[in-house]
Amino acid sequence: MSWRAVVELKSAKWMLGGALAASMALGGQSVHAAEQVIEAIPQIVGVESREMDGGSRRKFGGCFASFPSGTITVSGCNSTYVTFACDGSSSISKSQAKLSYDNATLAYVLDAPVKIRLTDQIKLDGFCTAINAQVSR
User: Fold this and answer.
1) Is 129 helix (H, G, I), strand (E, B) or coil?
2) Rounded Cα distance, 105 and 10, in Å
3) Rounded Cα distance, 127 and 89, in Å
4) Residue 37, SS3 per DSSP
5) Is 101 in contact with 114 (CB distance < 8 Å)?
C-alpha cells in the first residue's frame, strides 16, 4: 500500500469517527436527508430536447423517467417524474447519471421493475434526481 493510500485511509477513519461523534451528540437523531427507494416499471424514459423551451435550458436535466402517479413520496418532489441529470446539472457525475438512465431504459424495454434511490437533497425544478438505479430482475 502506498503512503498516499495510507494517508487517505487514516483521513477516512478520522471523518467517520467525527460523524459518529456528531450523531451521538444529537442523541441518536438521524442526520440524513429524506430518502426513498422506489421499485416500479418505468412508463416513459426519455431524453429532453433543447427545442422544448426555445433552447434556453433543460427542465429535466437532459434525461428522465416517468412512473405511476404517487410512486414518489419524497417531500417536495414531483410524484411521477425522476431526473437523472445526464447534462451534469446536479452533484451526480455525468457517467453515474448515464448509467442510471441506461438501467431505467433497459427496465423499460424489458418491462421489468427498476430500483431507484432518491433524496430530497438533490432536486432540479422540483424533480428528484436519481442517485442510482438498478434493474430488479
Assistant:
1) strand
2) 40
3) 12
4) strand
5) no
Question: Is residue 104 classed exposed, middle or buried when 0-12, 13-18 and 19+ CB atoms within 10 A define those classes?
Answer: buried
46 within 8 A of 35, measured Cβ to Cβ: no
For residues 101 and 48, the answer to whether their CB atoms sit within 8 Å is no
Give the CB-side neighbour count of residue 134, counting CA atoms within 13 A.
4
Q: How sure is the predictor about 92, in pLDDT bands with cuts at 50, 70 and 90?
A: confident
- CB-based contact 42:65 (threshold 8 Å): yes
User: What is the C-alpha separation between 18 and 68, in angstroms, rounded?
Assistant: 41
Which residue's C-alpha cell is 434525461? Answer: 63
For 19, other C-beta atoms within 10 Å of its C-beta total: 11
Sign (positive or negative) of CA dihedral 67, 70, 71, 74: positive
Share of the chain above pLDDT 70, in %: 68
Q: Grid coordinates representing 21?
A: 461523534
Q: What are phi and psi of 51, to 5 degrees?
A: -80, -10
C-alpha span between 17 and 74 (Å, rounded) = 29
pLDDT (0 to 100) of residue 53: 57
